[in-house]
Amino acid sequence: MKTLAELMAIKEATQQKMTVREDTGDDATRIIVGMATCGIAAGARPVLNAFVDEVAKRNLKGVTVSQTGCIGMCQYEPIVEVIQPGKEKVTYVKMTAEKVAKVVNDHIVNGNPVAEYTVSAIK
Amino acid sequence: MYRSHVLVCGGTGCTSSNSQAIIEALETQIAEKGLSEEIKVIRTGCFGLCALGPIMIVYPEGSFYSQVQVEDIPEIVEEHLLKGRIVTRLLYDETVTETEVKSLNDTKFYAKQERVALRNCGVIDPENIDEYIAYDGYQALAKCLTEYKPEDVINVL
To answer: Of A60, A77, A58, A59, nearest to A69 (Cα)?
Structure first.
């Protein structure tokens, strides 16, 4: 290593891998995937991993992806909740790994929840 | 990209209370559940709370488990790491109130401390130089070598 830029490159690349350890506090956007037995059976694991990958790929700061237990609507699993400070919680149902990119792009990045995937779109 | 990091204390105190066996049990059971690509286990330096060892902290939740035994590992892996249900009976009791889980830095033991030289202890993997660099390691040296003249360094000192 010869330059400051090389040191900074290592710093930034490693920081990106360590964001999960940051104390994001109350300002964080939380993506919560239902991972009870019903969620897992309906395919919540690939959804969870797709969110982790998408958040990492876009290098989003202050976004955490975690799991929770059964929300109580097992027939609509995999269920994902997105909680942002000062906004109403948005609940997505019957999620798939394919839908994840759109949720991250439209909702997390641009602030427009994807209405057609939410619980309120169920007839 | 790992969705969760499990930091297990590898300091002298926790090692003597068997944290090495905990790390091995975690790694075996994480592999058995097929979670090796999702969850990373890291052996850290001393957290500073040796009396409550073995200690482990699970991110992103920041759950601080204390006095963990090898027998507790299946429950932590199955409930917390797989299903996302924090094993509250093993949390450091000062971090748990009826309504919320407090940050470690707000507990009596840590709130009084301002760690300087040891601030990364228990936070980074001490055997991974990149993690040290990510937490500002070698920044002062780099500045001295690339930006400052010898006189500047002497003036700072």
So the answer is: A77
Q: Rounded to whole angstroms, how far apart are CA atoms B84 and B102?
A: 18
Strand partners, B39: B4
CB B134 to CB A69 under 8 A? no
Distance, in Å, from the CA atom of B129 to the CA atom of B79, rounded to the nearest integer, reads 32
The closest of B69, B140, B134, B33 to A13, measured between CA atoms, is B134
β-pairing, A63-68 with B4-9? unpaired
pTM of the model as a whole? 0.83
What is the nearest CA distance from A14 to chain B, expressed in angstroms? 6
Distance from the Cα of A11 to chain B's closest Cα (Å) equals: 4
Q: Which residue of A has its CA nearest to B38?
A: A49
CB contact under 8 Å between A35 and B84, yes or no, is yes
CA distance B46 to B28: 23
pLDDT tens for residues B20-54? Answer: 999 999 999 999 998 998 899 999 999 888 989 89
Q: Give this complex's ipTM.
A: 0.79
Non-local (6+) Cβ contacts of B53 within 8 A are: B9, B11, B13, B14, B17, B19, B66, B67
Chain A: closest CA distance from residue B45 (Å): 15
